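Hi all, posting the design record for the shared folder.

TITLE: backbone redesign
STEP: 1 of 1
STRUCTURE INPUT:
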């Protein structure tokens, strides 16, 4: 794809200013980014999504007010093809499963290497899904162990309340 034709807008929804600043610095180094929009909570993130219709959304799951799960659901209800990359300090596979059920197209832990963020964004831009390799491996292992864990039976909303 032509580099000029692929100048992307990215919405970062994260409540910690220092993390937003770090993500902004990382994204600024990626040549494909033309615009970085920021929001500090799920509600304002959804409003920014409606106003700017960004190409990609990076969504923290633990946000003040409405959770990242709810913000993902609202965005996907508005645009079923939204490209949302969820990221969280929670590496537990149940958070991953619930984020994907809500409509995220990928998941990263906040502990992953910075280069993986760009790799994940590239996958989403190209219409693919992306799971951090370590998380994908744990999910695959969990699926081969047999019956689902009790938390897996919860809906995304029930899991939010539980969490």
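Okay, here is what came back for every position:
SEQUENCE:
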């Amino acid at each position: 794809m032509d580099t000029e034709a692929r100048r992307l807008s990215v919405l970062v929804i994260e409540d910690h200013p220092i993390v937003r600043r770090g993500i902004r610095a990382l994204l600024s180094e990626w040549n494909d980014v033309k615009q970085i929009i920021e929001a500090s909570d799920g509600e304002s993130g959804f409003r920014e999504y409606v106003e700017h219709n960004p190409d990609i959304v990076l969504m923290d799951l633990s946000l003040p007010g409405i959770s990242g799960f709810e913000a993902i659901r609202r965005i996907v209800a508005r645009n079923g093809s939204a490209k949302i990359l969820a990221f969280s300090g929670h590496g537990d596979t149940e958070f991953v499963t619930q984020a994907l059920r809500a409509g995220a197209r990928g998941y990263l832990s906040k502990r992953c290497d910075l280069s993986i963020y760009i790799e994940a964004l590239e996958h989403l831009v190209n219409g693919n899904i992306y799971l951090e390799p370590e998380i994908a491996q744990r999910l695959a292992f969990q699926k081969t162990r047999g019956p689902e864990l009790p938390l897996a039976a919860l809906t995304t909303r029930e899991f939010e309340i539980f969490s």
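COMMENT: The longest helix spans residues 17-28.
Let me know if anyone wants the other runs.
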